[in-house]
What we know:
The chain has helices at residues 2-14, 17-25, 32-42, 51-63, 87-114, and strands at 30-31, 67-73, 79-85. By secondary structure, it is of the alpha+beta class.
Amino acid sequence: MADKKIRKQSNIKHGTIELVLLLLLQQGQKYGYQLSQELEEYSNGDYELKEATMYPTLYRLTQNGYLNCEQVQVGVRRTRVYYEITEEGRVYLDKLREEYSVITGAISNIMKHTD
Length: 115
């Protein structure tokens, strides 16, 4: 039974990854580790995003024109990739917010009628 619970939580989270990353990036330019730390902090540890999921999502958002990225050298041999939301990304974020509100409202209504 626990496996089903974990799978369901993962499915719900999967549909929100782009939304939460764009929400954080609307505050300003950030790099990957910073995003993962803020997600954990702001969600009180309930929303953990693995690098193997986050970076492909950031790459896809960049490819779709929703983010710009910039490599910055931060040490002799280290670079960081900073991501920044574009105007297209802000429009897409508004769409995702609206979709999320509709879905969560619908689920809430279903829960009211089935309790």
